[in-house]
Every structure is written in structure tokens, then in C-alpha cells.
Amino acid sequence: MMNHLEEWYEYEQMVIKALTVIMTLFFAGIALHELDIENPLSDFVYQYYLDPIIGESTGDSGYNMVNTMTYGIVLAMFAVALSGWLRHLGIDGSDMTLLALLPFVLWAALGEVVEDAQMFGEILSAWFVSPGVHFQTAGWVVLSGAAGYSIINNNENSIPNFKHVNTISMVLISSQFLIYGISISGSNTVESKEIDLTLFAIFGILGVLTPIWLKDIGDFFDDLQRTVYFTGVGGSLVLFGGLASYMSWAPSDQLNFWPVVVVIGLPIVVAYLMIQQGRESSIQLASQGIVAGILPPGMTEEEYLASESAEKDLIESLRTKATMAYPVAFLPVVGQFLDGLATYIGIDFFNYSEKHVLSAAVIELFDTAATFAVLKLAIGGIIFWFYSLANFEHRQQHLRLLIGLALMVVGMAPGLRDVGRLMLGV
Description:
Helices cover 75% and strands 1% of the residues.
């Protein structure tokens, strides 16, 4: 009899087939273009997807309604499909996996800001433009995750697993240091003035040594999560080194640090308050092996709603507060708030403009980005409301996790990029 965790939902199978069709059409359009065969598919692919990316690497061309809608739909479909694949692989579906992935959100934002500062060479520059940067981020996540997965499933190792994790993580971080260092060192001039890369080297070395100085934090994760976490933190330090070198070169009147304090500080306060409010309730449920919103194995939501038990009464009495302390809930909330604050300050105080079509329409409607920040906070409230009420079957844990990851990324990543640009004045 098949393990229920290995069973595919019908909607998962449908989404995988749809993604296969979409990717086939996309790459077919590219192939036909390269073969100089005129056709409407290639024209569509380049007009709405590739040309904006190529244009942004040289002039920040922005988004259009077609690619904005497509990116959102495809992101949701990937979350559904990936949840099934992760379940089949036996990857941990708890919130600890989300925390292990968190550094890569910062990694993507830092990479975009380094590109905004024009520190990458021409070849790598285009790889740090949205949405391409997110595919590159996913590549490093998959590479580090696959390495960690192989460590977990290799029973023939005579060397302790933590040493394998440290070694592989340091190799992956060193690879980033080398790849991005070569690109930055080959294009480290702005306005004909050479930038001193000493700080880049210092932070790069610190990044490579991440598995050593973050050993105690790494003990909270399994080997796969630890490998991903170390690689994300180390890689983020490598990229931050590029920003540090730029800041050491840039005129002091070009740099702005107060937006960083506000845009990052206030969401941290919100996260802290949510965790403090929900910590006791989440611990009380965890002591009985319960995570609010995740049903016992084999139970459907209909069965749960129809059931009557002391355990259900306990869950329902604590779930709202407990949800506040779950990373899958509070991280998307603060991510949306962070994005709203960064947009508000950038537009209303520094005369930046909004390139996302829907966001620009909202800002134009109210003639101020302050209402956009309020709207984003309201969206965060809706996300929390969703998680405080939603029930996921036991084999939907990864879907619960990936929904939270997607909601976190679409808010936190652009928000961090925006505040990075504000800080550098680029």
C-alpha cells in the first residue's frame, strides 16, 4: 500500500502538466528566435518577458501587465508543484525549513542592489535583474539543498555529517566569492574612479567561514537545512562585501542610513511583538506535538471541522495567538510591511518611482505612497488571518510552507532591495 505522503493530489498533477506546457512554449519561443524563424510565439516571449529583463540590466525598463500577471500565476503554480516534490523526497515541512531559506531572501536583494550600483560585469549583471535573480537564487538553493540531502541519505560516511556540511557549505560559498569577485574586480569602477575592494575581500572571507562562526545556530537545523542556511548566510556576506566597498567609495552625502533604521527596524519590532504574543500558546501546543493549522495524519479538514474532542477545543482556543509565533505567518506579515515602508519612503521622500504596474496604479490613485504602506500592512493582516483559520492536511505541510515562502518573498525581497538602493543613493 502506498504511503499517503507519496500520493499525488490531482491538482498537483494538473499544475505540473501546466508548468511543463508553459516552459515548453517559453523555450520554444527562444529557440525559434535563435533560428531566425519569424513567429508570433517568439515575438510574444521577447516583447513581454525577455526584452524587459535585458532592458533593465542597462536602463531599468520595469514591468508590464502581462509579465506581472504571469509571474504571479507561475509562482503560485511552482509552489503547488514543489510542495508535492518535497513531500515525496521526505524534506522537513516544518517552519525550520522556512528559517533556513530566509538568508536567501536577503541574498537576492543584496545581489540586485550590487547590480543597481553597477559593480557587476556585463555578463553577470543581467543575472541579477528580477525575475532572473530569483531563478539564480533558486539554483543556489537547489544546489545546496541537494548537497545536504545527499549527506542525510549517505549512510557510508565515516566522517561525521557536520564536517561534510561545513566542507560543502564552504565550497559553495567560496564558489560565489570567486565567481562574483572576478566579475566585480573586472568592473570595479564608477564614474572612472576605482573602488577599493578590501572590504569585499574581508566580508568574503568572513562569509566562507560562516559554518564555523555560526555553528551553534546551525545546531537547530538538520543537515539539509544547515547546508542551505550556511550557504545563504555566507553568500549574503559575499554580496554585502560588494556594497561595503561601494559605500567606502561613495561620497558621504550620497548615502542615506535613516531609511534602513525605519524600514528594517519597524518590521523587526512587529515581528518581536507577534512572537511574544504567541510564544506561550505555541509552546503549549508544541508540548503535545500540535502545530495549529496542521491536521493529524489521514484527517481531512471536513473531518476535523465535524469532530468534537478536548484536543480540538485546546487547538481552537490557542490557535490565533499561537499563529503569531509561527515563522510561516509572521515573516510574510513583516515582509509586506517592510515593502510598504520602503516604497513609501523611496517615493515620498527620495522621488523614486514605482515600476510594478499594480503598485503604481494604487499610488497614482491616492497620489501618495503612504496609503500604499497602509495597504501592504493590511495585506499582511489578511495573510495572518488566513493562517489563523486555515487547516492543512498532514501531507500538505509543504504547501503551507511554500505559500508562506512565496508571500514572504514577494514582499520582503523587493522591500530589502528598495531600502538598499536608498542607502546607497543609486
